[in-house]
Amino acid sequence: MPRKLFALLCAGILVLAGCTTPTDSYSSSPAKNAVPAPLVSSQALIVERAATSSKKVSAGAKLTGPKATVMLKSLPVKGKAAATGYNRNKKFGNGWKDFDGDKCDERQDTLSRDMSKVKFKDRKKCTVASGTLNDKYTNKRINWKVKSGSVDIDHVVALKNAWISGGQKLSQSQRQALANDPLNLIAADASANRQKGEKNTAEWLPKNKSFRCQYVATQISVKKKYALSVTKAEKNAMTKVLNTCKNQKGAKVTTVKPGGSAPKATPKKKTSKAPATVKGTVHPGSYCKNVDKGKRGKSKAGKLYTCKYDANGKLRWRV
């Protein structure tokens, strides 16, 4: 059979059988000198956090403790202390720490806690790359990404306010804990955070009125936990806010003892007992018994001698 006719006949059989030549699949046996494709892109790995990708996230610490009004009544009321000696980095630690021991610092933990649609830069899910914040201070929706500058991590009780309301009495480790405690942290609109600065409740409240109760209750909880005081004006402002939400809860906290653990009791000085005295008189320089070692005895002249070793290792009555 001519070759051309044979080729046409084979092509026809293939068409009738519904067969096609594959063009998009890999060969089961790659070419000898083929270079394998990279397993991952050189671009930084971005992993979406499924836990927050499909639900609305409420920023800030969860408050499930006693009523905030009750906690407020227990706070001491004092005037502001002088800010002498305040230095943010020296007194509260330089940079973010890992408060909860999960090997991620608290800035990253707060971003991932308070935002939805979170994406990370790393497999460990520590470094946040982007996310969406429903900002509690302004009620704005912020689509944030690294270096955008639109979101800050705010200390609900500002560190300088903590310093002038009892923070000077805390130990260095206690102040670092306050600065990194998730209870005192919230992701917030950067401009609102900077407007707030070091102000207390009497001087600044979030523009978003629906968040004020939670905001005030969080401040009260932080001040309760770290043995901080409120000014009279501050307490009045807090009370005014809580009058609109009398069932608002604070956080369940245990108040720290300023300065760390209780100071160690000064050990009592040991009072040495006077050496026992032997009966009768002793002769200076004469030998004495082992049972009398360390004891005292009087000579005929009334002078005290002690039974102790001489240079030769013998026990004698010596001055």
Give a structural overview.
The chain is α+β, with helices and mostly antiparallel strands and 319 residues long. Helices cover 26% and strands 15% of the residues. Strands 1-2-3-4 form a 4-stranded antiparallel β-sheet. A 4-stranded mixed β-sheet has the order 7-8-9-10, with no helix packed on it. A hairpin with a 5-residue loop joins strand 9 and strand 10. The N and C termini lie far apart (139 Å).
List the helices and strands and how they pair.
Layout lengths: L2 H14 L30 E2 L1 H4 L14 H6 L14 H5 L13 H9 L1 E5 L7 E7 L6 E5 L5 E5 L3 H5 L8 H9 L4 E5 H7 L15 H14 L6 H11 L34 E5 L14 E3 L5 E6 L5 E4 L1
Parallel strand pairs: 7-8
Antiparallel strand pairs: 1-2, 2-3, 3-4, 5-6, 8-9, 9-10
Q: Shape from CA axes?
A: elongated
Continuous helix count: 10
As a percent range, the share of helical residues equals 25-40%
Average predicted confidence as pLDDT: 83
Quick take:
With 319 residues, the protein is α+β, with helices and mostly antiparallel strands. It contains ten helices and ten strands. The radius of gyration is 39 Å and the shape is elongated.
Protein traits:
four-stranded antiparallel beta sheet, single chain, alpha+beta
